[in-house]
Amino acid sequence: LYIHVSTTLTCFHLTFIFSLLSLNNTKMKTPIHVTNPLLLFLLVAAFLSAGPSTAVTQQLLQGFVATPDPRAKDFQPILTDSTGNFSLSFLRVNQHQLVLAIVHVPSGVPLWQAGRVGLLARWGKPTQLIFNGSLVITDARSGLFWSTETDGDRVVLTSEPNLQVLKGRDARNSLSSILWQSFDFPSDTLVESQNFTSAMRLVSSNGLYTMRLGPDFIGLYAKFKPGGSNEGQIYYKHGALEAKAQIIEGHGPILVRISSDGFLGMYQNSSVPADIQTFNSYQRPVPGPRRVQIESDGNLRGYYWSGSSWALDYQLIAETCD
């Protein structure tokens, strides 16, 4: 197989391209002669624009390093789940900065972000994502941005999605243990199957509002004064109705979880919820994942993926002031 071209560089690239094509077409018996200058230009441009390989993997092993790609527009996938619906990505913020985030690929919406609100690295080569047992974001100029502070063997993203650092290299090894997981460090969003406990908090993207759990209630808190208390002041409280199960003092803390049946349930040491906040789609199947998010106006809202957009399905504060 050979190609007649005018330059050595073009000959190399086109020979490589057509060699790959010939491997998939065993009936190709004759040499390929490319003499049309326009065709040569288009083929070489397409090859060169593809740039270096940026294949997305389903597992990160020790020694992995990734840097931001200047060609990526909104987010740059690094690690994907088995369905391809979610990815651990560099997410662009203000064009020239980034956060490490779990992104819902069809919509580009982040469901989790590493580190505290406002912790932004530069979108450029000084920034690196490294896995050396810990998953680390570092910048040669600014130093360490964020780390899982673990000694793991691999990193995976489950289909919930939950980012996990695991001890044990073999995915089939039942002895693999979870050293760290993003489910334990939510940002502003909860997803199905994720337990939200009294040790956690959701923080809105502007940093002004938080959701936390009390002994028997869901509380929304706000920082009404700049530089005020980190705890903020409570402005909305939803107590458990305890219709099917009671919350008993001294029997452990409560947790909140999104059910696939379309409700936000409050539990204490039982599979029976002490309280449910029903969604509009209650007990109806939906085509995609569900999520609940504390938003920049201080309300807690629930959504499901319709296949083309996130449909509003729930509001904790049903009526808001204009």
From TrEMBL:
PANTHER family reported in the protein's UniProt record: OS07G0415500 PROTEIN, RECEPTOR-LIKE SERINE_THREONINE-PROTEIN KINASE
Segments passing through the bilayer: 6-26, 38-61
GO cellular component: membrane
The entry's keywords: Glycoprotein, Membrane, Signal, Transmembrane, Transmembrane helix
Bulb-type lectin domain sequence ranges: 128-199
Source species: Opuntia streptacantha (Prickly pear cactus)
Topology in membrane: Single-pass membrane protein
Name of this protein: Bulb-type lectin domain-containing protein
